């Protein structure tokens, strides 16, 4: 213990050791105030720094442990179902389960799933609906997103707010009346009507994402193009479009995955033209576990790919709700 | 120039027009329809009229399903509106020799003629007059000028006389009805297509109304439904267990990401993975864990904690099913809360946190006194979003319980629509979910705001 240290500064629980050590050198050497601070190179300060580093290091290790635990919590169920999807059907039925990876590896379960009645058609239906949703929602959200990002017009905030509100509405509430309306219009059990519904669900998020993507491209770039003689459309086409393509692709992927996952409306709106989730849902009660596990593998694959491609836009998509 | 600026001002509206039209068509309009379906009954009441024709004035309205007393019946020309399933009466235009030897030509109800010959298409050509049963009955059959009992009698035919049939008229029967339990009510006429007439021909009920009416019948039926109470209870229970757990886990995830450790982007990817996952897939994941020969039993067995698999997902273990549902939802939907919280954390200036650290605030003190208060708006949004999503849990529940053992509101809406084909009650459920969502959103908005007014941050 250094004898020059004041009791306040020496105490490890001092309220402001950092401030004290920082301010000490230039303020308090000459002025004889009540607070006497240790010089910066004193062992006292060094020890304190060490303690802080140790504490930070301990915290760091704890952070890694927590991170690993949470990652395991998310990955273990996925891993388990994937290993069930790529093994023999006997293994799926067996007990107790082997926890080692993919033992024995086999495409037996997967083949059984794909050869079950209606599965290939369900996969195809899902792809068709998701693609229509992707195209429709992208086509509609690009102009709307551009308008929000680039123009100040009366009603802009109202439009933005209502889009936000629409996104929070429950799917369940929308599906039933829409199904009744489609039934009355005679387009029940059609993939197109389901795609229309999915587009309505995807549109709000698409619009917000696209507008934030456009907003991230400075308008000055567009203006610069026009200064150099490009028409507004040309400068949009050659300057803005290349910069926003990745973001718009991300929002399109979002619509695709939303449609791929959506099960309530799909189950309500379709009967024979089931999409994959609706098919799996309908056969939950009377299908073997192997069917369900292989089905959930197909349900998860697009989202895993999707999350890889859109991770840059994660906060554009969901973070901005607070602003 | 003026025209150009006017045009330029129009541009943003043209750009958002497709989105507005689309959302109006496929969002606002169905929403409105859903409301109408839940509280408006398209065929709630049947208007009854002063005369047996559609032109006659309405004398009263009788609700669907009311028991009726039938006072009179009369046949009328068919109403051509494409509706089927009605009580009809046929009349034949016949000619034959009357008792006094003259020829009679007029209309007789089909019941009075036995058809003897028909052409290839089944149209009657000739027949004989049926004898009337009973001693006291008038042996002669009236022939009417019009196919109507009340029209004038042009002649009378002896029983068993041969007649030729020239024309057939199909008439609809109208009934003069009166609510059975309310004999003071004015009686009125209604066509048979909307009525159900019992065997004795004196009693019946209103089968279907033709006029709409606002009604609470569907909402009452929803509340009386035997699944309503367990569905509501389970939904609220899941919400109450899920949301606090979710906030804590999401906060832990967000703090880990915000700590900017190594592989931070990798962790962010893993943590965000469930955002894109379908709820059905999440349900199946946790089914694979909790099912009889699943992962949990295998691990417990391997550790020697149980002998033989324990059945978690049965009707006797609804507690475990609820627990599994909560875990599955926690797994699936916590990531989105995390993203919102990370975005909120990123909005906190680094200087603020560094200053606190400089003043000796420990990590937990910084979390408790700086991050959490500044995160309040984010938490508020996350709470609203999560509550609304928790009110719609559906596929997870079906994957883990089959939907019958443990049921939730969204599933009841689905059941009413899909299994019971009752659009109105299904819409009532949907409306109920919407109301709960709005109520909880308002609740969060108010409670969080007023708190921050009391204790400014």
3D structure, described in words:
The complex is a heterodimer of chains A (about 325) and B (about 450). Chain A is built from 15 helices and no strands. By secondary structure, chain A is mainly alpha-helical. Chain A has two domains: about 5-85; about 115-320, MetI-like (MetI-like fold). In chain A, helix 6 (about 120-150) runs antiparallel to helix 11 (about 230-260), helix 9 crosses helix 11 and helix 10 (about 220-225) runs antiparallel to helix 11. The radius of gyration of chain A is 30 Å and the shape is flat. The two termini of chain A are about 50 Å apart. Residues about 1-35 of chain A have low confidence and may be disordered. Chain B is an alpha+beta fold. Chain B folds into two domains: about 45-215, no CATH class; about 220-455, MetI-like fold (Orthogonal Bundle). Chain B has 13 helices and 14 strands. In chain B, strands 3, 4, 5, 6, 7, 10, 11, 12 and 13 form a nine-stranded antiparallel beta sheet that branches. A three-stranded antiparallel beta sheet of chain B has the order 2-1-14. The longest helix of chain B has about 40 residues, at about 1-40. The radius of gyration of chain B is 37 Å and the shape is elongated. The relative contact order of chain B is 0.10. Chains A and B meet through helix 2, helix 3, helix 6, helix 7 and helix 8 of A and helix 1, helix 3, helix 4, helix 5 and helix 6 of B.
Brief rundown of the structure:
Chain A has 323 residues and is mainly alpha-helical. Chain A contains 15 helices and no strands. Chain B starts with a helix and ends with a helix.
- Gross morphology of chain A is flat
Q: Give the domain tally of chain B.
A: 2
**β-sheet strand percentage of chain A:** under 5%
Low-confidence stretches of chain A: 1-33
Main sheet: strands, sense, barrel of chain B: 9 strands, antiparallel
**Rg on CA atoms of chain B, Å:** 37 Å
CATH classification, class level of the largest domain in chain B: Mainly Alpha
H/E element sequence of chain B? HEEEEEEEEEEEEEEHHHHHHHHHHHH
* CATH fold type of the largest domain in chain B: MetI-like fold
Helix content of chain B: 40-55%
Q: Can you identify the CATH superfamily of the largest domain in chain A?
A: MetI-like
**Main β-sheet of chain A: number of strands, strand sense, barrel status?**
none
Helix content of chain A: over 70%
Tally of separate helices of chain A: 15
- Quick check: average pLDDT of chain B? 83
Number of strands of chain B: 14
Distance between the termini of chain B: 51 Å
